[in-house]
Amino acid sequence: MAQRTKITPDAVHHPLFARFYARFSETMDVRAGIEAYRRELLHGLSGRVIEIGAGNGLNFAHYPAAVSEVVALEPERTLRQLAVRAALKADVPVDVVPGAAEALPVKSEAFDAAVASLVLCSVRDLPRALGEIRRVLRPGGELRFFEHGRAEGRTLATVQRGLDRTVWPLLFGGCHTARDPLAAIESAGFEIVTHRRLRVPEKGLAVPSSPCVLGVARRPALGAGE
Predict the structure, then answer these.
(1) Strand (E) or helix (H) holding 171
(2) Cα(21)–Cα(71) distance, integer angstroms
(3) What predicted TM-score, i.e. pTM, was given to this entire model?
(4) Phi/psi of residue 195, each to 5°?
(5) Distance between CA 224 and CA 226 in Å, rounded?
(6) Coiled-coil regions in this chain (predicted)?
(7) Is the separation of the CB atoms in 55 and 121 below 8 Å?
(8) Is the peptide bond before 201 cis (omega within 30 degrees of 0)?
(9) Is there a contact between 164 and 177 (Cβ–Cβ < 8 Å)?
């Protein structure tokens, strides 16, 4: 069994950022069209799903009826409390639990799919977190991801790297803008099934968190690189 990082449930605690994020995320769902991306992200899912870093639970309303259970992990206490409220309104069973992506408190190969939505930017150890996601997925299970990350243009990418070394993680709950989620997912042993790059918001001034990628990856089936 792989070694686990010992992280207490509330080791991630950003109460001021959490309150800001809760309000901002609801606004951006409507004004920046993120709600539509959430529906696309979750479309067609079925069976048992684990959601990593569920935040205030904005995905919960969009899980299809074929999903039998969602285990939603959120390490930040304030956001977790909001997620519990959202879970009570969901049409599918959602169990909100404390836990960090680097040490998922669930059994190996227990889930049909995993969801990572605007969370890989802020996990403390990205390779370990993706390794944990791969561990808890059954062979052939899907990772659905909607993440912001490194810009393709040189100018914005340079700005992102500078901000990540200075104020951005401090102001935005440990978020990093210059990570490359697609490359990290591939490096963790997933097969990229499909993806497309997005700019959020589509119009107006680009900000460091504007470059996004939405897609599906798969843990290889047994005998296919396992």
Answers:
(1) helix 168-171
(2) 21
(3) 0.91
(4) -160, 155
(5) 6
(6) none
(7) no
(8) yes
(9) yes
